[in-house]
UniProtKB/TrEMBL annotation:
This is GntR family transcriptional regulator. Residues 2-69 form the HTH gntR-type domain. Pfam families: FCD (PF07729), GntR (PF00392). It comes from the Bacteria. The keyword DNA-binding applies. It comes from Georgenia halophila. Keywords: DNA-binding, Transcription, Transcription regulation. The keyword rRNA processing does not apply. PANTHER family: GLUCONATE OPERON TRANSCRIPTIONAL REPRESSOR (PTHR43537:SF24), TRANSCRIPTIONAL REGULATOR, GNTR FAMILY (PTHR43537).
Amino acid sequence: MPAGTGSLARAIREAIISGEFAPHQRLIETDLSSTYGASRAAVRTALLELAGEGLVDRMPHRGSRVRAISLEEAIEVLEVRIGVEGLCAAKAAERITDEEITEFRQLRQDLVDSVESGNLMGYSEYNRRLDERVREVSRHGVAADVLSRLHAQSVRHQFRLSFQPARAAKSAPEHAAIIDAIVARDPAAAEEATRVHLISVIEALRATA
């Protein structure tokens, strides 16, 4: 069970992203309190945080519901992410430590292996881990904070893509290229590889329309 408001917000966020809570679904505080073993005050605070991220709509006198993010809006968010995520990748390439290089090389192998073995659930998790670690290794607090909020708004549409074998086979080499540039400590290449990957995601999403 979530121990505090931060972990509670994270748990609800993950449920929204994965589709466990559907767009327009009402989020009833008493139900969430029971499900997650948290006080109603903690649930209310978590929902306010998620409303700030654009994942939840707070309706006066009517509670909260999962915000429906359109495909076009998700694409616009991705267009913004190109710049911010590219910056994080470039900073990660500048600031990565030798120990973190070892970690990133292992993550690269895990990503490739999961796609080759058809483990798309594992691939989705490694993908999420890579996004998270690039932000952390960038050590750029403002960019990482902006990116975490933008990512939450578009990732629900991307989540579906990650379970398409053909898409995973295409995106795995793109992720590998990002990692290769970061561990090579090449900021320009890391930024470019990130741009290429996100443009590819945008094209894939448009193809689903």
